[in-house]
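Both lines are given unchanged directly below:

***
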Amino acid sequence: MGIDELIKLLADSGYQGIIEIHENSQTPIKKRKNQELTPEEKEYNRQLSKLRIVIENVNRRIKRFKIMCDRYRNKRKRHGLRMNIICGLHNMDLAGS
């Protein structure tokens, strides 16, 4: 089961090899050894970070419920249900703001 080809994947620099698996993905450009990034590469990284900050903020809010950052010790089949409830609470909070 892979990611749909139409989905654009915005990943952080820990996923540098993801382009080989999913061609519609973007990762920041890393600095090469003994060389600085060009201004264009820095701007690309800045623009990518602006898009990713929204995703990171959602992850931060969901991690408050400890389901993503701690070991899940309940029944495995209920994990998806609980994640959906937490995400629904997050979305409801956003809609109320």
